Amino acid sequence: MGLHIVGGNFSSLIAPLVAVLLASLSGSWRIPFILLALPALVAGLVVWARVPATGAAQRGEVRDFVQGASGWRGIVRRIGLLLMLDFLLSLVAFSMYSFFPLYLTDKHGVSFAQAGVLTGIMVGVGIIGSPLGGGISDRLGRQRVILMAVISAGPLFYLLTAAPMGLWFLGALAAFGIVVSLHMPAMESLMADHVPAAHLAMALAVYYFFSQETSSVMTAVVGRLTDLHGLGRVFQSLALFACVVSAVALGKMWGFGRPSSDVH
Fold first, then answer.
1. Is 4 helix (H, G, I), strand (E, B) or coil?
2. Does residue 261 sit within a domain?
3. What's this model's pTM, rounded to 2 decimal places?
4. What's the N-to-C CA distance of the chain in angstroms?
5. Region 206-232: what's the mean pLDDT?
């Protein structure tokens, strides 16, 4: 699962660099948006043409699982708190990613090109974090990796808002990117451990809907709050909220010891 997620991390590393280059060469920010959309459109057509449609039997299995409250209740009872902590971590991370280049230029006075590169590095270090998180979770357990990621994310985010530009800031930048990418393969694998294979695709779809699509709403909220109170204050508030989530995760880690229900 960690190796699978590397594909998305690698694109996150390369895309800002390519976008900055295209914008510099063309003199317009519109050109990168147009040109970088083309590979995604081509890939979508290829997937549409090559992946077979879901059969009627499979659709019936998914419908039975959605309508069967016991299936959902059982999953929520076993891993509901971890899902919520993971969701909050993703919500904070995706909310700040959209505004991080602007934050760098506003607070630290870096150029737009440098802000794009630094943002790409923060997200792209998942090339290291994703397989690392998957490998560690195979040895220590899924829950521990998820909790360690959530516990670390809040203080690192706060350090990003407090540290001046320099080695401490760059170290926190790389560490935050790695920590955020640690939890994804562990969370997907934890769901695979607890959800029947016939229903895993639907469960993952619900998980990704709440963890990623909800961030689009939060982006609008963060943008409005920035207009009202300034980006620095909003980032500090997000960092403090992330620290509260980290404290809850620390309590969970402290309380459960070695989880007997975890699958390695």
1. helix
2. no
3. 0.75
4. 14
5. 84
Is 66 a member of any domain?
A: yes
CATH value at residue 93: 1.20.1250.20
Domain that holds residue 212: 2-256
Q: What separation in angstroms does the CA of 148 have from each of 40, 145, 152, 194? A: 34, 5, 6, 20
Asked whether residue 262 is assigned to any structural domain, the reply reads no
In a domain, 156, yes or no: yes
User: For residue 43, which phi and psi values (nearest 5 degrees)?
Assistant: -60, -40
As a whole number of angstroms, the distance between CA 114 and CA 200 comes to: 41
The residue that leads in pLDDT, 64 or 82, is 82
CB-based contacts of 204: which residues, under 8 Å, 6+ apart? 188, 191
The tens digit of pLDDT for each residue in 98-117 reads 888 889 998 888 888 788 88
pLDDT exceeds cutoff 90 at 156: yes
Residue 164, φ and ψ in degrees, nearest 5: -75, 160
Residue-wise over 238-257: b if at least 16 C-beta within 10 A, else e? bbebbbebbebbeebbeeee
d(CA 212, CA 263): 25
130 neighbors 181 (Cβ within 8 angstroms): yes
What is the count of structural domains for the chain? 1
